[in-house]
Amino acid sequence: MKTLRARVGVNLTSNAALTLVGFFTAPLLARGLGVGGRGEVVAAIAPLALCATAFNFGMPAAVTYFVARGGYRARAVLARAGWVMLAASVPAMGATFAARSWLSSGNGDLTRLISLSSVAIFPTMLVSLLQAAAIGRDLWGHVLAERVTSAVLRVILLALLMFGGHLTPTNAVVVLCWVPVLAGTVYLFTWRALGEVAVKTGASHGLMRFGVQVWVGSVSGLLLSRLDQLLIVPLASTAALGHYAVAVSLSEVALIVNSTFREVMVTEATRWFDGVRLAAASRISTVAALAIGAGCAAASWVAIPVLFGPAFEAAVMPTWILILAVILGSPGSLAGVALMALGQPGLRSCSQAVGCAINVAALVVLVPTFGAVGAALATLVGNMTAANLAIYWLKTRHSVMARDFYRISRSDLVALTETASRAFRGRSG
């Protein structure tokens, strides 16, 4: 089995590919579609992202957990979770169709785009499930192949459409919804690689119980990060959503290292929990978010008008606020992973639910007046609440010192440098 540093390096490469595709496609969509068209595309695919999590009942996280623990028939666990998600996708599509007129504020073209994206709900859910199994079995090469394939295809297709004069909101929605599904066929090799191991009694019951506890937090976490993109159009305008979408895509660059450690540590901590090691990963993640975020914030003042056009200058302030939200939420993100690995996903879900509730209240109050800036401020408050609650639960229930998530040392900086160097050199061992 690869070392932890090697797994982090491989996953860092795959997450960097996903982030870079957002960096390259955002200007293409902004310049090719304008503020209004960019807002329509975001509004059209937002229900897909929301439903893929809101209706998955925590199955991806549960599959990762049980496959990582071992002792279960991995294929049987994956198949049962697949049936659950298939059944759940039907009401998900129904809910999207029923709400599409309200979500589009009566815009006929946007209503049609939302209907188009909703067809991809189950395939998207299935890909996330297969990815969860690959992560649980440490098949990071499969994850890397899927993410790089998806990233490259999206950039190429959108660039061809734009420079050929054929980029429309409809074409953009098709590319953004279905290219990740196409890339997900890589996980057919994951099914073959899972193999079979001994069966434990009660695996199915444990899968559902764990999944539902995770699901509450997953829905809250998704609402915390994506509900704003659903509500901005009804509360403000498509132009405000266009500005906010640019801010989100740029701020997510600062999430690269945090996402990497979160995905790797959930399997590592499930097999063998080490609070000191996990806190160190949290500190490294926070330092990386601070360094990358500071660079993005400094560059955004000039980069946004140049890359996206003068019409997007209003996205600068929301970008700064969202970058700050990423940095301050980084420690709590790894604390949530620790709670899940310790078999207490309910506490993680509680933290995210409270953060989500505060976020929704702030959205309703701030967005009508401040638009994209208000949505960014709401995200900042929600992220800080959820992050610090997760650390509080870990401290009070498992005696993990809260300061260990914040006390940055020179060794953390060295570890971050070595991990980044390994990823950029493309080495895996």
> Over the alpha carbons, how many angstroms does the gyration radius reach?
20 Å
The shape is: globular
Low-confidence stretches: 197-202
Question: Into which percent range does the helicity of residues fall?
Answer: over 70%
Provide the domain count.
1
The chain-level mean pLDDT equals 82
Number of helices: 16
Number of strands: 0
Strand content: under 5%
Strand and helix order? HHHHHHHHHHHHHHHH
The class by helix and strand makeup works out as mainly alpha
Distance between the termini: 10 Å
Main sheet attributes: strand count, strand direction, barrel closure: none
In short:
The chain is mostly helical. It is built from 16 helices and no strands. The chain has one domain.
Can you tell me about this structure?
Helices cover 83% and strands 0% of the residues. Helix 2 runs antiparallel to helix 3 (74-103). It is mainly alpha-helical and 429 residues long. The chain has one domain. The chain is built from 16 helices and no strands. The chain has helices at residues 4-54, 59-69, 74-103, 108-118, 121-136, 140-163, 169-183, 188-194, 203-235, 238-251, 256-271, 275-308, 316-341, 345-370, 372-398, 410-425.
